[in-house]
Amino acid sequence: MSSSLPERLQAILGAAHVVTDADVLDGRSVDHTGRYRGKASALVRPGSADEVAAVLRECRDAGVSVTVQGGRTSLVAGTVPEHDDVLLSTERLTSIGEVDVVERRIRVGAGVTAAALQRAAAAQGLLFGVDLAARDSATIGGMASTNAGGLRTVRYGNMGEQVIGLDIALPDGSLVHRHSQVRADNTGYDLASLFVGAEGTLGVITGVDLRLHPVPAYRVTAVCGFADLTSLVATGRALRDTESIAALELIDGRSAALAAEHFDVPVPTAGDWLLLIELAGDTDLTERLADTLADAELCGEPAVGMDNAAQQRLWQARESTAEVVGLFGPPLKFDVSLPLSVIPAFASDSAALVAEHAADAIPVLFGHIGEGNLHLNVLRCGTEQEAHLYAAMMKLIAAHGGNVSSEHGVGSRKRAYLGMARSDADIAAMRTIKAAFDPTGYLNPAVLFD
């Protein structure tokens, strides 16, 4: 009699790394927000790329779906299993190579957290260009899979601009190691770029070779208050393309007030809308910041941080948003890219739409305004109100010329709206690529496509 799939997986990984306990699986089958839940048959934790490949072969041959999980910080239900899946966790792929200070690069396992990578880079006087509030749990593999952006995107770009090499386990169980020691390598297809942003549908990223950056000698941070978004956007537009820009973040005044009330985080300055600005470079940029803000229509004096402690206090106003949006239970989240010119109208129209569908809900709009990448979180929105509001909000985003997904990916939550951002021909081409790599469609089957 042939052994069961769990037994065969135990033979590959050892019994300790194949979990079938119902309570553990239940906890692993809910998304980061707590709104969406699925069902899994087993959890596996490979410790190497070879083990990942072996697990994929066994699951493919058994006809069992696999959902890949990293730090499980997906906000679009991208790690929620829908087919009684095997959950493949990258949590043991945590190797951190030596920092190459000459070439400014480092190779890490897919399960390394952003915070751990930041510490390794900082120890050698360098920095990693992508930062986000979930840095302590978000993994490098997951961030590459969704092409995450975050708080420093306006200066350093998304994950795709940091990735210079990948290790990938393909759905057939083969391994691809795409690395190069030269800066200009244009031989053949750019396979690494194909897997960045693919959300684990084409293969499992097991290791990443990353670009690092010098640490700026000087940094100045400010939070400015505005009475309206039109004035804030005008100031942001003037700042975003300057050479010294390091961060440009929108903070909703409602969020700042809730952070002050519930978490004792001081509101840095008055205003219905706040703009966090950070400049960084090789010289003191205080005067440049003052010159840039001279003509801005501010509500009052900006709060300025010159030293590290003062800068961290100002950043609290932005990073406390992650706690604020969870005050009233799981929020309803929208990750959207918009042209800067339509952001004021979208803020007004989306607030009206929320009021129409959920009268007691609180819309909180924040995010990376330098890129037009904003996060609309609807607090106090029940599941009975969600269905109609979600579809209506997707239509509103498209009507404003926006993209229904920016840095969080499509996951399973937004797959029905893929056609709002991509043409039929685009989607057909993506399906062709998916079928070429994964003919049976067993890998991350709930993600991206209906």
TrEMBL record:
Keyword annotations: FAD, Flavoprotein, Oxidoreductase
Domain annotation FAD-binding PCMH-type: ranges: 36-215
SUPFAM superfamilies referenced in this protein's UniProt entry, alphabetically: FAD-binding/transporter-associated domain-like, FAD-linked oxidases, C-terminal domain
Recorded GO MF terms: FAD binding; oxidoreductase activity
A biological process term (GO) from this entry: respiratory electron transport chain
Cofactor(s) it depends on: FAD
Family, per entry: Belongs to the FAD-binding oxidoreductase/transferase type 4 family.
Protein name: Oxidoreductase
Biological source species: Mycolicibacterium sarraceniae
